[in-house]
C-alpha cells in the first residue's frame, strides 16, 4: 500500500513556456517532505539536505562539536575507513559534500542515474552510521585547529569574528562554530556522538532534489536514505540579544591594508518590511558596481577595490553588515564616506530612479538563477528553510514590484541607523591629511 | 570483495558515453573573429563573453599590470556610453557583468536573459574599438587597482610568497611577473600605456566570441556578423611570440618569512610542457600524474603522508596544461605539528621516488578515468563552464579540435606513460622549492 502524495505543484511561469520549472512537493511513504523538479535530459540528480540548527547546537563547553562531527561524516562508516569510503565514492563518481553553518548542517550530493542505488546506500551509511573512529577524530581535529590558527592571522576573519563577539555576548553567534584550539582538542568521541544525535534528526530535515528522478523514486530513496536517524534532535538555544552600541573598535594588526566590518542590528526574514529592506540594500550596497557605496567609495574616490552591505537574517538574531578594505592611510576616509552615506540614506531614502533600477535588476535576475540542477536544488531547499510557500518563486517578483518609494523611505529610516553603526577596523590606520 | 568492486567499476565505465554531447558549434567571421556557441536550452539564460588573446604576459617590460588596468578602464566611457553606463544597462536588464585578466587572456562577460543578447553584443562590440578615457578616469581607477593589489596580495602572506615563487620560476618569461602588476610599476601606469595596449591587441582578429546558453548558432551568427563582423581587422596585429625560458640547470630555493603566517608549508614546482595544438599527449600524462599523485584521500601522496606516516596535515599536486607557453607541475606539503619543513620536504621527495618505482595502481587509474567521464555528464549542467573551457583553451594556443580530443586522450593514457612523465618532470635541477615560514625568533636583536 503506497502512502505517497504529491501535495502541491507550483510552476514558475515567469519564464517562457519551454523553460517552465515545475516544483512538486513530494511526501515519502514514511512522511519526509521534499521539493522536486524533474529534469530528465541529463542522467544525474542534485540532492540537497539541510538540518536546521548547526553550530548553535553546541553544548556549553563543547564549542566546535557540531562542526567537527560534520567534518567526520566522510571519514568512514561501518567496516569502511576514510580511504575506503572515498574510494567507493570515486568508483561511483558520486560527489558528497558535508558542511556546518551557524543555523544548519548541509549535505549535498550529486550522483549518476546508472548507479543511483549504490550511491545512496553509501551516502546513507555516512549520515546514519558514521564511524567517528579515534584515528579520524585526531586527524580532523588537527585540520580544524590549523583552520582556527589561520583565521587568527587573517584580517578579514579577525574583523568579522571581533564584530560577532562584540555583538552577541554569550550566545553561540558570538564565536566561531569552529570552536577554539582548546575546546576542539578537548572534544571526545562521546561529544561527537552526542552532536550527531542532536543535529541530524528527522524533525528538522529539509530536502530538495532536481534531476533525473521521479516523485515516486525520490520518496523511496529518501525513506531508505534517512531511516535510522532519530525522530527528534537537540533543542535550539534562545534568541541572540544584540549588544553593541555605535562607535569604532580598532584591532591593531601589522598589515598594509585595513579591513573594516561595520553594521548594526538588521531585520527578521519574516518581517513585513523585509522585502522593502532587501530592495533598499540592493540600492545601498548589495548590488554590483552601481550601488551607492560602490559609487561613492570606489568609482568616485578610488578608496577601495570593493565595498558592500548585506542583510543577515539568522534564525535567532539578525544583522545589517557591510565590509570595506582600504590602505592604512585611506581607511579613515573610507569610513567617513560610508558613515555619511548611511546617514544620507536613512534620512533621504533612495531616489525613484534608484528604486526602479533596483527593481528591474532584481526581477530580471531572479529567473536567471534557475539555470542548472545544482543551483535550483539549492534555491528550493533554501526556500523551505525560510518557511516560504511552494509558489514563492512565482510570486516573488510581484513582491519586489509592489515595493513603493514610500515603503523604502520608511524602511530606510527604520532599518538604517547611523548612530548605531559600529566599525571594527583591523589594521594600522593612520591619520588622514585634510 | 575487491574483485567484485573492480567489476562494478568496469561495468560503469562501459555504460558511460565516451564523449558527452556538449552541443558546441564554431565558425569564423570574415574579419577573423572566431565564434563558439554552446547550446543549453533548459533555461532562458545566456552567457555572452569576449575573450582577447592578450594577457599580462603580452605586456611590454616596465608597464606590468597594464592588461588588467585596461580591463578596468573598459567599464568607463565610449563614444556612445557614459562612464559606468555599460554595467548600469546590464543590471537594468537583470544581468550581471564583469571581466577577468590572466597571463594569456583578458575576458569580458555578461550573464543575461537570452532575449537581451543583441544589446550585449551591441555594447561589447562598441567598447572593442571606441573607448574614450580621461586623465580623471586614470587617476581614480589606478587607486582602485592598487587597493585591489593590497587586498589580493599585500594583505596575504601566502599571496606574497606565491608571487615571489613564480618570479623565481620564470627567469625570462613574462609569466614571472604578477598579472596585477608590480606595485611600483602600477603606480606609474598612465593613459598612454593603457591606450597602447588597447590599440595593439583589441581587435576582432585577436578575439573570440563565446556564447553559452539558450541560443541557436544561426541566430548568434546573424547577430555577430551585424555587430562584430563590421569591425575591421587590425592588419598590424603582432605575432604572439614572447621571450621563452632558457633550460633550467640549477635548482632554486627560497624562504619567505612573514609574521602573518600561521601554517608553514613547502611548495615545489617544476617547469613543465603545456598542451600544444595537435600535441597534447605529454600534457595529458602530466594531468593524470597530478590526479594519481595528489588529488583526494586515495592519491599516492595522501595515502602515504596523511593517512600512513601522518607526517602531513595536507598534501597535494596540481598541474594545468592550458597555457600558451611553459606551465608548471606543483607539489605542496603542509607538515603535521612537530614535523619540520625539511623533514616534510624529504618525506615528499621520498614518496615521489617510491611512486616512480612502484608504478600506478591500475584500479586507481580506472577510478580516475571513471570520474573524468562522469565529470562530462555533470559539466552539461553548467553551459557557462563549458564556454569558459573553450575560451581559455582557444586563447592559449589550442584549437576547437584539441578541446574535443582532450577527454579521449586522457582516457587513453596508460600507467607506464604516467610513470614516464614523472621520471621526466621530477628533475631537481628543474625545480623551485619554497618554504613559507614564520619569522625567526628575534632573541639577538631584541636586547
- Beta-strand level of the residues of chain A, as a percent range? 15-25%
Q: What is the 3D form of chain A?
A: globular
Basic shape of chain B: globular
Tell me the structural class of chain A.
alpha+beta
Instruction: Please indicate the percent range of residues of chain B in DSSP E strands (runs of 2 or more).
Output: 15-25%
- Strands in their spatial order, largest beta sheet of chain A: 1-2-3-9-4-8-7
Classification by helices and strands of chain B = alpha+beta
Rg of chain B (CA only): 24 Å
What's the N-to-C terminus distance of chain A? 80 Å
Round the Cα radius of gyration of chain A to an integer and report it: 23 Å
**Integer count of domains of chain A:** 2
How many beta strands in the DSSP annotation of chain B? 11
For the record, what is the CATH homologous superfamily label of the largest domain in chain A? Metalloenzyme, LuxS/M16 peptidase-like
Order of helices and strands of chain B: HEEEHHEEHHHHHEHEEHHEEHHHHHE
Explain what this protein looks like in three dimensions.
The complex is a heterodimer of chains A (434) and B (447). With 434 residues, chain A is of the alpha+beta class. Chain A has two domains: 2-226, Metalloenzyme, LuxS/M16 peptidase-like (Cytochrome Bc1 Complex, Chain A, domain 1); 247-427, Metalloenzyme, LuxS/M16 peptidase-like (Cytochrome Bc1 Complex, Chain A, domain 1), CATH 3.30.830.10. Chain A has 15 helices and 14 strands. Chain A has helices at 65-72, 82-92, 116-128, 134-151, 155-168, 181-185, 189-199, 215-226, 274-286, 292-299, 331-348, 352-365, 373-385, 392-401, 405-415, and strands spanning 5-12, 21-27, 33-38, 44-52, 76-77, 80-81, 95-100, 104-112, 205-211, 247-252, 257-265, 307-313, 318-327, 422-427. Chain A has a seven-stranded mixed sheet with strand order 1-2-3-9-4-8-7, sandwiched between helices. Chain A has a five-stranded mixed sheet with strand order 10-14-11-13-12, with helices on both faces. A two-stranded antiparallel sheet of chain A has the order 5-6. In chain A, strand 7 (95-100) and strand 8 form a beta hairpin. The radius of gyration of chain A is 23 Å and the shape is globular. Residues 1-7 and 13-18 of chain A have low confidence and may be disordered. By secondary structure, chain B is α+β, with helices and mostly antiparallel strands. In chain B, 44% of the residues lie in helices and 17% in strands. A six-stranded mixed sheet of chain B has the order 1-2-6-3-5-4, with helices on both faces. In chain B, strands 7-11-8-10-9 form a five-stranded mixed sheet, sandwiched between helices. The longest helix of chain B has 20 residues, at 135-154. Mean pLDDT of chain B is 93; it is low at 1-20 and 443-447. The interface between A and B is large, with 72 and 71 residues.
Amino acid at each position: 500500500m503506497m502512502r505517497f502524495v504529491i501535495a502541491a505543484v507550483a510552476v514558475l511561469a515567469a519564464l517562457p513556456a519551454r523553460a517552465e520549472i515545475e516544483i512538486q512537493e513530494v511526501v515519502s511513504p514514511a512522511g519526509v517532505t521534499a521539493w522536486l523538479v524533474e529534469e530528465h535530459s541529463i542522467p544525474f540528480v542534485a540532492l540537497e539536505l539541510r538540518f536546521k540548527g548547526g553550530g548553535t547546537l553546541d553544548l556549553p563547553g563543547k564549542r566546535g562539536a557540531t562542526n567537527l562531527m560534520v567534518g567526520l561524516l566522510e571519514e568512514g562508516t561501518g567496516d569502511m575507513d576514510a580511504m575506503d569510503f572515498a574510494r567507493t565514492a570515486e568508483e561511483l563518481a558520486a560527489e558528497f559534500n558535508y558542511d556546518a553553518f551557524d543555523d544548519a548542517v548541509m549535505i549535498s550530493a550529486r550522483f549518476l542515474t546508472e548507479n543511483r542505488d549504490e550511491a545512496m546506500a553509501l551516502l546513507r551509511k555516512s549520515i546514519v552510521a558514521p564511524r567517528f573512529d579515534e584515528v579520524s577524530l585526531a586527524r580532523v581535529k588537527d585540520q580544524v585547529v590549523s583552520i582556527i590558527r589561520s583565521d587568527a592571522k587573517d584580517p578579514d576573519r579577525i574583523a568579522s569574528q571581533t564584530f560577532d563577539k562584540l555583538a552577541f555576548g554569550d550566545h553561540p553567534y558570538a564565536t566561531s562554530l569552529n570552536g577554539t584550539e582548546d575546546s576542539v582538542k578537548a572534544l571526545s568521541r562521546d561529544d561527537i556522538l552526542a552532536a550527531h544525535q542532536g543535529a541530524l534528526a528527522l524533525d528538522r530535515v529539509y530536502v530538495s532534489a532536481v534531476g533525473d528522478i521521479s516523485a515516486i523514486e525520490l520518496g523511496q530513496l529518501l525513506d531508505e536514505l534517512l531511516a535510522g536517524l532519530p525522530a527528534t534532535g537537540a533543542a535550539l538555544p534562545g534568541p541572540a540579544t544584540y549588544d553593541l552600541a555605535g562607535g569604532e573598535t580598532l584591532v591593531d594588526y601589522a598589515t598594509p591594508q585595513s579591513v573594516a566590518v561595520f553594521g548594526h542590528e538588521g531585520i527578521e526574514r519574516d518581517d513585513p518590511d523585509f522585502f522593502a529592506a532587501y530592495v533598499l540594500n540592493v540600492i545601498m550596497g548589495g548590488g554590483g558596481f552601481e550601488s551607492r557605496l560602490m559609487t561613492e567609495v570606489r568609482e568616485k574616490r578610488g578608496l577601495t577595490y570593493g565595498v558592500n552591505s548585506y542583510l543577515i537574517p539568522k534564525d535567532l538574531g539578525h544583522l545589517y553588515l557591510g565590509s570595506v578594505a582600504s590602505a592604512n592611510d585611506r581607511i579613515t576616509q573610507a569610513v567617513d564616506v560610508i558613515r555619511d552615506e548611511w546617514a544620507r540614506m536613512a534620512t533621504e531614502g533612495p531616489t525613484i530612479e534608484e528604486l526602479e533600477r533596483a527593481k528591474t535588476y532584481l526581477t530580471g535576475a531572479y529567473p536567471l538563477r534557475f539555470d542548472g540542477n545544482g543551483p535550483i536544488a539549492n534555491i528550493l531547499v533554501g526556500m523551505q528553510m525560510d518557511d516560504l510557500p511552494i509558489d514563492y518563486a512565482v510570486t516573488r517578483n510581484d513582491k519586489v514590484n509592489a515595493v513603493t518609494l514610500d515603503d523604502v523611505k520608511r524602511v530606510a529610516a527604520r532599518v538604517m541607523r547611523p548612530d548605531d553603526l559600529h566599525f571594527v577596523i583591523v589594521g594600522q590606520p593612520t591619520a588622514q591629511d585634510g | 570483495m575487491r574483485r567484485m568492486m573492480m567489476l562494478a567499476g568496469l561495468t560503469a565505465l562501459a555504460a558511460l558515453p565516451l564523449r558527452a554531447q556538449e552541443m558546441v558549434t564554431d565558425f569564423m567571421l570574415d574579419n577573423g573573429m572566431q565564434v563558439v556557441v554552446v547550446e543549453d536550452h533548459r533555461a532562458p539564460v545566456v552567457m555572452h563573453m569576449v575573450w582577447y588573446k592578450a594577457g599580462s604576459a603580452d605586456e611590454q617590460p616596465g608597464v606590468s599590470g597594464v592588461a588588467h588596468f585596461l580591463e578596468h578602464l573598459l567599464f568607463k566611457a565610449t563614444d556612445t556610453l557614459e562612464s559606468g553606463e555599460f554595467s548600469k544597462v546590464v543590471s537594468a536588464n537583470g544581468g550581471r557583468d564583469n571581466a577577468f585578466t590572466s597571463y594569456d587572456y583578458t575576458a569580458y562577460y555578461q550573464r543575461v536573459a537570452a532575449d537581451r543578447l543583441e544589446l550585449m553584443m551591441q555594447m561589447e562590440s562598441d567598447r572593442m574599438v571606441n573607448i574614450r578615457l580621461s586623465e580623471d578616469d586614470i587617476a581614480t581607477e589606478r587607486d582602485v587597482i592598487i587597493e585591489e593589489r593590497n587586498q589580493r596580495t599585500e594583505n596575504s602572506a601566502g599571496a606574497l610568497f606565491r608571487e615571489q615563487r613564480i618570479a623565481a620560476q620564470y627567469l625570462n618569461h613574462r609569466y614571472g611577473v604578477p598579472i596585477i602588476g608590480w606595485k611600483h610599476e602600477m603606480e606609474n601606469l598612465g593613459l598612454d600605456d593603457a591606450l597602447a595596449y588597447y590599440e595593439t591587441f583589441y581587435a576582432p582578429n585577436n578575439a573570440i566570441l563565446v556564447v553559452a546558453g539558450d541560443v541557436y548558432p544561426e541566430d548568434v551568427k546573424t547577430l555577430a556578423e551585424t555587430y562584430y563582423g563590421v569591425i575591421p581587422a587590425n592588419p598590424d596585429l603582432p605575432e604572439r611570440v614572447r621571450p621563452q625560458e632558457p633550460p633550467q640547470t640549477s635548482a632554486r630555493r627560497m624562504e619567505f618569512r612573514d609574521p602573518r603566517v600561521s601554517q608553514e608549508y613547502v611548495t615545489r614546482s617544476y617547469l613543465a610542457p603545456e598542451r600544444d595544438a595537435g600535441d597534447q599527449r605529454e600534457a595529458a600524462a602530466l594531468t593524470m600524474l597530478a590526479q594519481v599523485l595528489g588529488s583526494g584521500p586515495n592519491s599516492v601522496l595522501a595515502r602515504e603522508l596523511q593517512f600512513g606516516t601522518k607526517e602531513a596535515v595536507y598534501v597535494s599536486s596540481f598541474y594545468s596544461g592550458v597555457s600558451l607557453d611553459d606551465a608548471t607541475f606543483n607539489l605542496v606539503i603542509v607538515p603535521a605539528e612537530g614535523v619540520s619543513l625539511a623533514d616534510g620536504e624529504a618525506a615528499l621527495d621520498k614518496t615521489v621516488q617510491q611512486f616512480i618505482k612502484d608504478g600506478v595502481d591500475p584500479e586507481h587509474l580506472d577510478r580516475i578515468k571513471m570520474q573524468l567521464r562522469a565529470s562530462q555528464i555533470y559539466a552539461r549542467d553548467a553551459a557557462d563552464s563549458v564556454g569558459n573551457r573553450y575560451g581559455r583553451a582557444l586563447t592559449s594556443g589550442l584549437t576547437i579540435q584539441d578541446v574535443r580530443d582532450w577527454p579521449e586522450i586522457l582516457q587513453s593514457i596508460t600507467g607506464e606513460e604516467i610513470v614516464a612523465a614523472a621520471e621526466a618532470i621530477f628533475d631537481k635541477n628543474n625545480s623551485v622549492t619554497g618554504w613559507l615560514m614564520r619569522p625567526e625568533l628575534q632573541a639577538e636583536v631584541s636586547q
